[in-house]
Amino acid sequence: MTIRLKEVDAVMVGMGWTGAIAARELTKAGLDVVGLERGADRVPAEDFGLTTLRDELRYVHRLELMQDNSLDTITFRNAADQPALPIRRFGAFLPGEGVGGTGSHWGALYWRNLPSDFRIRSALTERYGANAIPADMTIQDWPVSYEELEPFYDRFDKLCGVSGQAGNLKGHIIAGGNPFEGPRSDHYPNKPIKSGLGPSLFGEAAKSLGCHPFPAPTATSSAPYVNPEGMTLGRCEYCGHCNRTACEANAKASPNITLMPALRADPRFELRTRAFVSRLVYDKAARKVTGVVYTDMRNGEEYEQPAGLVVLSAFTFGNTQQLLLSGIGEPYDPASGKGVVGKNYCYQFEAGGVAFFADKEMNPFIGAPGMGVVIDDFNGENFDHSGLGFFGGGYIVCSNGGAPLRAATAARHW
Amino acid sequence: MADETIPRRNFLLGAGTAVAASLAPLSPSQDAQAAEQPAPAAPAPPEPEPLLTLTATEAAFLSAAADAIIPADELSPSGTDCGVVIYIDRQLAGAYGAGARTYRNGPFRRGKPEQGYQLPLTPRQYFATGIAAANEWARKTYGKEFDRLAPPDRAAALSAMEHGTAQFENFSARAFFGRLHGVVMEGFFSDPMYGGNRNKVSWTMLGFPGLPATYADKVDAYFNKRYVAPPKSIADFS
Q1: How many whole angstroms separate alpha carbon A356 and alpha carbon B24?
Q2: What confidence tens digit (pLDDT) does each residue in A356-366 have?
């Protein structure tokens, strides 16, 4: 028996970055908002403290902050002719769970897309000719441009207290920054975080090869900082534990510290945790979503929450699953290329190596993923792909930081 | 170092060169000193430590495996003496051993290696099955159980599992080694509150200071200079 609740102005499905940002904008606009989150609440003062966060086994290996796969997972395959099998425990990529979502445990390397990324099909066609893109390469232009999005990038920089060195300020190239980045309307709000010996050596080597090294931009505050919401971020302590873990110094930007305190104090916002959304409700005649159905995971009761506005603010998998389960949109069929729901999903992947210098002192435990030096010379359309047989690329970063357990097991496959 | 043990450094290098990067390089004089010194004394457990879930056979297997991977030498006491078997016992007896946070419904099909773990077994059941399979293979290959093998044979047996040349009955020896190695590393390097890394022995070996890890004022001061501090664990701040 589904219990029908009183209609609200807006409901968020997921309370990570997207849910927190959208909820904050909507309450400011005068709407009453309910935030639904399938996982637990996470309050920094309670959940992100010392000594708890220094427990590498709990966070890095047992994945405390990630989606609980005993309840739900996805299936996957590497090719269309393979059977899709469940991922029984996330490993290669790690969707978060609980308030803050992946935003509570990210490594906080912080990037804007390149201007050419927004119009990738056009950019490649202009540079390499109409026949350069293979027929089965489904890339396409975004409906927004870098220029349209730039003011929002800038706003998010300031919300997160991002640390970095501008390389292109309103079209002026600044030495020491990333010369390939799109024009920024303002500097990063914080100076870059400090470098270590390894990243410095990498920077020198890259420069000697004619590349353009710069300090990694990171949403980890290099100094105490108050964001436009009035929230205070602390200074990075270079503890080396960022990735897969939260930040006890409140230096790493997360929804939990940049936005949630404002939402929690806002009478227009109501947070409901352990609320697992199972489908969207819609008026088929009007083709309008009118609410969501969710299960209260504390007691198993099912509720319908009607809302004027439903925001799918989970990770891509969750959002796509809601659309598919609710019969909204045409599912993507890779054989025919028809349909859009689930099409062109991409996840970042990284390949890495470790260097050992017998005559240098690296103090590998001092660091952060963002405590690094980067080159962007081989990313996107920053270099000529003529005759290379591929498009795309990536940044190359050398960073310092890492506790023993992860290092000891990094190369093992389970 | 006794010549019958697996060269430890090779094992660790195989596990990920990051460990090698973390191993504090010794100066020549320290190196010579270290070579002359006996193994650090094995810290005695304060009280008897009954096993929560492992059988005697399983504990013997894991002890032999832990000591092959982490032999007593100038760097540390043996894996068992560092608490690795107690660590594994506690983990397998708890939520991890019961399959917490793991999707355990069907379909159960043999997937491609890149599709990861696809067995219906919990970690507790997995180790029970894997140890039985490994001992069965050891009996066929060497005429006795793994823990009764001489150290060079233990090393060779683990190496055969690691490289997939050992064939267990209906069970991937290679995957088993990967998982075995994983829990041994966890027991050796995790915070001591889990029962392994007794007396912070691995952290001392690496020069890892542990908690609280607030280094903002150390980054520049220790640029290309070793930062040394006695390791602190969670218990030290509790």
Answers
A1: 11
A2: 899 999 999 99
